[in-house]
Amino acid sequence: MSTHASPTPPAAASLRVAALIPAFREERHIADVVRATVPHVDEVWVVDDGSPDATAAQAEAAGAKVIRHPANRGKGAAIKTGLDALRSHGARFIVLLDGDGQHLPTEISRFVAAAEGGAELVIGNRFGDARTMPIIRRCVNRFMSWRISRACGTPIPDTQCGFRLIASGSVPVLLGETDRFDFETEMLVLAARAGRKIASVPISTIYGEEKSKISPVRDALRFFRLMKKLTGSWL
């Protein structure tokens, strides 16, 4: 694990709930996200994935512990770095949020409640009210959720949601081979195959001025390659 900028903090005596925010070029939003998250968890950690801007500095100033990748490695790689670090620091539950403000930290308690009820991987579900979700994204998400749910053998309404909670004990089985956005899909399939209990909780659907970092063609190809690898079928 490469740690640049802030030194790795000493092991915490007890981290019940920690937030992990992978971030790349989020200097406009990351401070607000960190400050909004701090009241709802024991610690907030940001993994800056090689941002050329002030993402790391803004996150640290807002109260986050920061790990920096010296170069961009992908969202999946940033999540893996954070999961490894937080597990080693004793976090019981690790909540994943995006750094662009699409997730409401006030809803973290829903994830924790599901985890305390026995779920080992909890996924946010935006489809209770998806009217504000762009129509193309809504259709793509529904197709991918159907396909991934079939691969997992269990219904997962919103497999593309980055708002998640992972029980620390499940981290080792989730660290697959992918390092980009496809890691969030691989994580679900690995959890299901390992017999981990997966649950979904309703969350708000928020879309502001942020631009998606997903490349429609490149990341779609990664998705289909991953499905082929995991299931033996493109579709």
Task: Describe, in plain words, how this protein is organized in 3D.
The chain has 235 residues and is α/β, with parallel strands linked by helices. It has helices at residues 30-37, 55-61, 75-88, 108-116, 135-152, 171-174, 183-193, 216-231, and strands at 15-23, 43-49, 65-69, 91-96, 121-125, 164-167, 198-202. The longest helix is centred in the middle third of the chain and has 18 residues, at 135-152. It is globular, with a radius of gyration of 17 Å.
**Would you list the SSEs in sequence order as H and E?**
EHEHEHEHEHEHHEH
Morphology call: globular
The secondary-structure class comes to alpha/beta
**Radius of gyration, rounded?**
17 Å
Kindly estimate the percentage of residues that lie in beta strands according to DSSP: 15-25%
| Terminal CA distance | 35 Å
Helix run count: 8
How many strands in all?
Answer: 7
In the CATH hierarchy, the architecture is Alpha-Beta Complex
Short description:
It contains eight helices and seven strands; from the N terminus they run βαβαβαβαβαβααβα.
List the helices and strands and how they pair.
Blueprint: E1 15-23, H1 30-37, E2 43-49, H2 55-61, E3 65-69, H3 75-88, E4 91-96, H4 108-116, E5 121-125, H5 135-152, E6 164-167, H6 171-174, H7 183-193, E7 198-202, H8 216-231
Parallel strand pairs: 1-2, 1-4, 2-3, 5-7
Antiparallel strand pairs: 4-6, 5-6
